[in-house]
Write a structure and sequence with these properties.
Strand order of the largest sheet: 1-8-7-6
Oligomer: single chain
Largest sheet: 4 strands, mixed
Protein name: CBS domain-containing protein
Number of helices: 7
Helix content: 25-40%
CATH architecture: Roll
Keywords: CBS domain
Pfam family, one: CBS
InterPro entries: CBS_dom, CBS_dom_sf
Order of helices and strands: EEHEEHHEEHHEEHH
CATH superfamily: CBS-domain
Strand content: 15-25%
Structural class: alpha/beta
Number of domains: 1
CATH class: Alpha Beta
C-alpha cells in the first residue's frame, strides 16, 4: 500500500469554486453540462413498482425523474414525479378497472418509442448555448443523449442543471414532467 501523508491546513483561508477553474459561458462545450451516465449512475426504477410507492420514493429522495427499466434491466421509458399525481393514478385505475394500488410505473411512464434524443457525436461538436437554443426552440426542459455507436442512452441534459452551472435562469415554457418533455415533438 502506498503511504499517503496528511498536512495541516491552518494557513488555508480560501475555498476553490468551479468558476475559478475556468469560467463557463454559452460558448463552453456542451459535453461539460450533461449528466453523463458513464460517470454517474442513472436514476432508474423497475417498471413493476407501484405508482404510489414510486412517488413516495422519489419525493423522499428528492429525485424528480427516473429512467424505467424492465425485469431484464432494459431501458423502456421515463417517469417523472409529475406523472405520478393522484389524479393520474386514479384516472388510470378507473380506466383499467384496477385499484389505485395496482397502478404501476409502467402504466404511467412515457415509453421510449415516444421519445427523441441527441446523438453524443453532435453534443461533442456544439456549445452549451446551442443546447439551450435547442431546448428553448422545442419547449423542452430535458433531453436524453444517445451514444449512437453503442446504441445506449448515455446521459441527459437538464435546463435547470445548465442554469445552475451558468449561474443564470433558463426559462423554458413547456411540459413539466420529463416524460412529457422528452416526448414533445422536435
Amino acid at each position: 500500500m502506498k503511504k499517503i501523508n496528511l498536512f495541516p491546513i491552518t494557513n488555508v483561508d480560501e475555498l476553490v469554486y468551479p468558476d475559478e477553474l475556468g469560467s463557463r459561458n454559452l460558448t463552453s462545450p456542451a459535453a461539460e453540462f450533461f449528466t453523463d451516465f458513464r460517470l454517474d449512475d442513472p436514476e432508474v426504477i423497475d417498471d413493476s413498482v407501484s405508482a404510489l410507492q414510486a412517488r413516495q420514493m422519489m419525493r423522499a429522495t428528492h429525485v424528480r425523474t427516473k429512467l424505467v427499466v424492465d425485469d431484464a434491466g432494459h431501458f423502456i421509458g421515463v417517469v417523472g414525479v409529475d406523472d405520478l399525481f393522484d389524479q393520474s393514478i386514479l384516472t388510470r385505475a378507473a380506466n383499467q378497472g384496477q385499484s389505485r394500488n395496482e397502478v404501476t410505473v409502467a402504466d404511467l411512464m412515457t415509453p421510449k418509442r415516444k421519445m427523441t434524443a441527441l446523438h453524443l457525436s453532435d453534443v461533442n461538436k456544439c456549445s452549451v448555448g446551442d443546447i439551450i437554443e435547442l431546448l428553448t426552440a422545442n419547449s423542452r426542459k430535458h433531453c436524453l443523449v444517445l451514444d449512437e455507436d453503442t446504441h445506449q442512452i448515455c446521459g441527459v441534459f437538464s435546463a435547470s442543471d445548465i442554469g445552475q452551472r451558468l449561474h443564470q435562469s433558463i426559462a423554458i415554457q413547456g411540459p413539466t414532467g420529463l416524460g412529457q418533455a422528452l416526448s414533445a415533438v422536435s
